[in-house]
Design a protein that fits this description.
Elements lengths: L1 H28 L3 E8 L8 E9 L6 E10 L5 E17 L8 E7 L7 E7 L6 E2 L8 E6 L3 E6 L4 E6 L4 H6 L3 E2 L2 E2 L6 E13 L3 E11 L6 E12 L2 E11 L7
Antiparallel strand pairs: 1-2, 2-3, 3-4, 4-5, 5-6, 6-7, 8-9, 9-10, 11-12, 13-14, 14-15, 15-16
Length: 255
């Protein structure tokens, strides 16, 4: 009986090892596919580098990438590689954000989350040295519902506030129990998103900066009540907030 048990355990172990090896081999076979490529002088040597954005797909012909890579090849054969977490719709943009006369590389990746959040990565490769320039952190915004179908946000970065009149949503808010006859049933915070857009913009027609967008939602992510736009410029290695602007959303825009 003991001998049979040992044989059974050994057989199970061999089968498990074989299955694991097969899965591992399958994963090993997956190679990065080319997503997009560009050519530009991003080292400042007067020669154009080849810039490739690649990704490992979860499935063949999938729009969802498990891992994403940025590869830069110089004319002299030198290469630079950066690896990022996966996502959807990865893209690259080349602009001179640090105002050193050489274009930088901005990588944007959609996380695919319910809030529509994007991840951004910014690098300088001047003189063939890879420098992470980072990107601005999203604005720190606090917000809450108020009585009489109103809401208020405060942008902590510059201490600016804005009030929203949400009377057109009164019926829905009453039905879902957020309000009762215009009075808030309990303290409820608004939902603040990170950057769902961060795009290059010319600052006063001269330097390149970034303009970010953050969505503000009410009772749920789908209940968008507005957005906050912020404009940034890179000075001495630090992202400086130049301005913010609040836009209100009406229910018609969401239908």
């Amino acid at each position: 009986m003991r001998k049979e048990f040992i044989i059974l355990v050994a057989a199970f172990f061999i089968m498990s090892l074989t299955a694991f090896s097969a899965v591992y081999a399958l994963e090993e076979e997956k190679k990065p596919v080319l997503i997009t490529e560009k050519t530009a002088d991003i080292t400042g040597d007067g020669e154009e580098e080849s810039i490739y954005l690649k990704g490992i797909e979860y499935q063949e012909d999938s729009l969802h990438f498990k891992t994403i890579f940025l590869e830069v090849r110089e004319k002299n054969g030198r290469t630079h590689n950066m690896e990022f977490d996966g996502g959807f719709e990865p893209a690259i943009c080349l602009k001179d954000f640090n105002d050193d006369g050489v274009k930088d590389v901005l990588v944007t990746i959609n996380t695919g989350g319910s809030g529509g959040i994007l991840n951004h990565h910014l690098y300088s490769l001047k003189d063939s040295k890879v420098t992470d320039l980072m990107t601005p952190e999203p604005l720190v915004i606090s917000g809450q519902f108020l009585d009489k179908y109103k809401a208020k946000i405060t942008i902590e970065n510059n201490h600016k506030s804005h009030k929203f009149d949400l009377k057109e949503r009164a019926k829905d808010y009453e039905l879902n129990g957020l309000y009762h006859n215009g009075k808030l049933n309990e303290p409820t915070e608004l939902i603040m998103g990170g950057f769902d857009r961060l795009k290059p913009i010319k600052i006063k027609g001269k330097k390149w900066g970034l303009r970010g967008n953050q969505t503000i939602s009410g009772a749920a992510h789908a209940d968008v009540i507005g957005r906050v736009e912020s404009t940034w410029i890179l000075k001495n290695g630090v992202w400086v907030l130049l301005s913010t602007k609040v836009f209100e959303a009406n229910m018609k825009q969401q239908k």
